Amino acid sequence: MTPFTQKVIRIIQSIPEGSVMTYGGIARAAGSPRAARQVVRILHSMSRKYKLPWHRVINAKGMISLTEDESASLQQLYLTGEGVVFDERGAVDLERYQYIPAPDLELECGLGLPPEFGDEEEA
Asked: Which positions ≥6 away from 116 have C-beta within 8 Å?
């Protein structure tokens, strides 16, 4: 697993309840500002394995990116249940709800990753 992938997983795990991050925001925080699509891939392939709060990741417009109605509705339901409010367009106010990790966030500390986290190959 690459260091970037490890950072992305840790950042997603650190998003607090009632907050969201964008794909690009996660990529920036992980040190690769142009890797939003890579974040999508990591989120898609590793959410279940690492119990990632996938529902807290939205697009740069503050909207849910999932195209499948059932999954998008579930994501909105989870976020609403955490207190996140959507406007009439279905967007989240990023100024209010966006989580920005502190620059000194210790990404190497245990945030729920198994001990073998750094030893396995990417899925």
From this structure: none
Q: Please count the CA atoms within 13 angstroms of the CA of 90 that sit on its side-chain side.
A: 11
CA nearest to 1, candidates 58, 45, 34, 48:
45
Whole-angstrom distance, CA of residue 115 vs CA of residue 103: 24
- Over residues 41-45, the mean pLDDT reads 94
Contact 111, 13 (CB under 8 A): yes
Helix (H) / strand (E) element for 21: namely: strand 21-22
Quick one: tokens of 28?
């920036």
In this prediction, residue 102 carries a pLDDT of: 78
Helices 3-14/36-46 angle, 10° precision: 70
Percent helix, strand, coil in the chain, to 5, is: 45, 10, 50
Q: Which residue's structure tokens are 């607090």? A: 16
